[in-house]
Specification:
Blueprint lengths: L1 H16 L7 E10 L7 E9 L1 H4 L3 H4 L7 E7 L3 E8 L4 E10 L2 E12 L2 E15 L3
Antiparallel strand pairs: 1-2, 1-7, 3-4, 4-5, 5-6, 6-7
């Protein structure tokens, strides 16, 4: 279940990142998921090369959105973006926001729903920073 939720968080962050082109280069993304369903916070990290041709199309470096989830864009400012996400088949819904700057990105996603007959609430915080040129 954690992989599904982590994948959803990345997909939502991917949609948000599309609102702002990332600077090409090597990026390190770290996500921490907290939920009453989990014994302790779960953290996952990935290092990814974002090539120049991929920077404007986040689906090329963050992966394609899986499942029945639909991300609806919300408010956009010069350095932030918000959205709502709805997954009718899996019974999940939530909202998120992202803030970005030169070489950094931070997002927060709140999800709730009913998964496999169990209600859940989840908070995912993701941060990313550019490490330098791709190796």
């Amino acid at each position: 279940m954690l992989r599904i939720l982590f994948g959803l968080a990345l997909a939502a962050a991917s949609a948000a990142a599309a609102a702002q082109e990332l600077e090409p280069g090597e990026w390190r993304f770290t996500s921490t998921v907290t939920s009453p369903m989990l014994p302790k916070p779960q953290t996952m990290s990935v290092t990814q090369c974002v090539k120049r041709e991929d920077a404007a199309d986040s689906s090329r470096w963050m992966g394609k959105q899986d499942g029945d989830c639909k991300v609806t864009p919300g408010r956009k400012t010069g350095d932030s973006f918000s959205w709502e996400v709805s997954c009718p088949k899996s019974g999940m819904r939530g909202k998120g926001s992202v803030r970005y700057g030169r070489g950094t990105i931070e997002s927060e996603i709140q999800m709730s729903g009913d998964m496999q007959g169990r209600k859940f609430d989840m908070l995912t915080k993701m941060s990313g920073r550019r490490l330098g040129p791709c190796k």
